[in-house]
Specification:
The protein is of the alpha+beta class. The chain contains 20 helices and 11 strands. It binds flavin-adenine dinucleotide.
Length: 549
């Protein structure tokens, strides 16, 4: 073999240095439609930054150089620090500067949550580990706001646009991030089984000091400055703000035992932690821990769906781009009939996911509105379930479009495929979301009316949709006995999600996308594999919706 560089033929070029936003018609339209048209140019600017070589390189570096735990120092004293690669810090610096953590709380304005959702979705195309502390900080704000008087300094530091990586007391920092601790060894979904105990240090009540003893089995982004943690107080399961430092400046007794060796999400640290009489301040009344932390959880669930839609978009874009540059059997892959069908079907799934996640985000811009509150209650678990559930299937099929190159870690998809199941697992796994949908519909029947308001305005536009909707509404009106309803929980949730996506496409979608969705998802049910669209579809138009040429 000669040492000369081989001639490289027929390989597609890297997809970098493009504007993630202005090539994404579906997201740009959703931004305007859901109430944040004024943010178009800000998103365009962010899209250009995020599509740069610099950002993709940072994302790669942060994931190839995972964090390291320093539980003890070299003398054996506790250190409990996690060391991250500089790329992680640079990514977080940029994320926080863009306000993708708490922007809508710091600068409330019409469309603020929708605009952040669009930015967060674009960020998900580049790097996902950093989204974990961003999301938890986003959700921590509404959990703490009811007790503003006790947590004002924390709230104001959460709103900061400065990322401060120092391991130091919050009072000495320019900005903070927050995490959460619910899951224990014996139960994550069923947090009522939590065994961590909290003893009052003196007087009891919201804002008062307690001491926490126990553990958390998953405790992500442990270098956050504080965490909302569930523990059993004398009055029942309660929520505590547990900071990394005590008010006197000493390190709080949060002992990091180990970092998880995870399938994906490698840039981020997920630790196991033990609390050794750790200092914590009570959030809400004793015994009200679950509702208090669920204030945070509901925003996390929104972000899970937005993040999964972003992951899908990046993988589908990579697939479309590859097929436009690679030839097989005499023509470009993108021109091969069966590949056109696969790409269009993937793009359609992505389009529907983006539309649905952005519609949900709008419900978070109307926090005081009763109809939006009811819709949020039922639509959040629906969207979290369905969009997150579709992501691994989409990412996996997109990988196959790249052939063998798709499976290689040097390429853009392997990391994203490994990441893709996570959003479905944390903050309420699939079944838990479906049970939550049923709980919403049975405990607060007006959530069904809110759903109907979303689904019925487009009635009469297409008989396939009308039949689908009529059957769904009939089933939702009579859920049957609880055991039977649970058995059908996934089926019902999936149908609500598909109906909502169809309703959005009927009302606002392009004609090719709407027709393809009705034909393939509503008339025929969700496809088992991608690439089964009927021949009448406009394949090129569908692909271009996700990655403009
Ligand atoms: C990378 C990563 C990071 C994480 N970070 C954090 C963190 O920072 N803080 C934190 O608190 N947690 C964190 N978690 C934990 C995560 O939230 C939990 O793993 C999740 O909530 C599920 O809990 P579990 O693992 O105990 O599973 P289980 O609760 O045992 O559930 C196992 C399965 O059973 C299903 N199931 C449970 N109950 C029912 C039922 N009644 N009917 C039908 N099916 C049911 C669930 O849907 C799931 O599929 C993280 C997890 C991962 C993977």
């Amino acid at each position: 073999m000669s040492g000369a560089a081989p001639e490289v033929l027929n390989q597609s070029a890297e997809l970098v240095e493009y504007n993630l936003f202005s090539t994404h018609s579906v997201l740009a339209e959703a931004l305007a439609r859901e109430g944040a048209a004024a943010e178009h140019s800000a998103l365009e600017k962010l899209g250009a930054e995020l599509g740069s070589v610099t950002m993709f390189t940072l994302g790669e570096a942060a994931n190839r150089n995972p964090p390291r735990l320093h539980a003890l120092d070299r003398f054996g004293a506790r250190r409990d620090e996690v060391e991250f690669h500089p790329a992680w810090h640079e990514l977080l610096r940029r994320l926080v500067a863009a306000g993708l953590h708490t922007g809508p709380w710091a600068q409330p304005r019409p469309g603020a949550h929708v605009a952040r959702a669009a930015g967060y979705m674009l960020w998900a195309e580049v790097e996902n580990g950093t989204q974990c502390p961003a999301t938890m900080s986003y959700g921590a704000v509404p959990a703490l706001v009811p007790q503003r008087a006790d947590f004002a300094p924390w709230l104001s530091l959460l709103m900061s646009r400065e990322y401060d990586p120092a391991f130091a007391p919050a009072t000495a920092k320019r900005g903070v991030l927050m995490g959460m601790g619910m899951t224990e060894r014996q139960g994550g979904s069923d947090v009522r089984t939590n065994t961590t105990r909290a003893q009052p240090a003196g007087a009891r009540g919201p804002g008062r000091e307690y001491r926490l003893t126990g553990h958390k089995w998953f405790f992500s982004a442990p270098m956050c400055d504080a965490f909302l943690v569930l523990a059993q107080a004398p009055g029942g399961l309660s929520c505590f703000l547990v900071p990394r430092f005590l008010p006197d400046g000493s390190v709080n007794a949060l002992h990091l035992v180990r970092l998880k060796d995870k399938l994906g999400n490698r840039s981020n640290a997920s630790s196991e932690v033990e609390f050794d009489a750790a200092y914590g301040l009570l959030v809400a009344e004793e015994g009200r821990g679950i509702p208090a932390i669920l204030e945070m959880g509901v925003y996390t669930r929104l972000d899970n769906a937005i993040g999964s839609a972003g992951l899908m978009r990046q993988c589908v874009s990579q697939a479309i781009h590859h097929a436009r540059g690679r030839r097989a059997f005499g023509r470009l892959l993108a021109a091969q009939p069966l590949m056109r069908n696969v790409l269009a079907d993937l793009a359609l799934e992505c389009e529907a996911a983006v539309m649905l996640a952005m519609r949900l985000a709008r419900a978070f811009d109307a926090l005081a509105d009763e109809g939006a509150t009811l819709l949020r209650r039922v639509l959040t678990p629906v969207v979290k379930y369905w969009v997150c559930k579709r992501a691994p299937a989409v990412c996996s099929e997109a990988m196959e479009v790249l052939g063998g190159n798709g499976y290689v870690e040097d390429g853009p998809i392997a990391r994203r495929l490994r990441e893709s199941p996570l959003n479905s697992i944390w903050e309420g796994s699939g079944n838990i979301m479906c049970l939550d949908v049923l709980r919403a519909l049975t405990r607060e029947p007006r959530t069904g009316e809110a759903l109907a308001e979303l689904l019925t305005p487009v009635r009469g536009r297409d008989p396939r949709y009308d039949r689908y909707l009529a059957a769904l509404l009939a089933d939702l009106t009579d859920l049957g006995d609880p055991g039977d309803a649970e058995l059908r929980g996934r089926e019902l949730t999936q149908r609500i999600a598909l109906a909502a996506q169809a309703a959005l496409l009927l009302a606002h979608g392009s004609a090719p996308s709407c027709e393809a969705f009705l034909a393939s998802r509503i008339a025929a049910g969700a496809p088992a594999a991608f690439g089964t669209l009927p021949r009448s579809c406009d394949f090129a138009a569908l692909s271009a919706r996700i990655l403009r040429e």
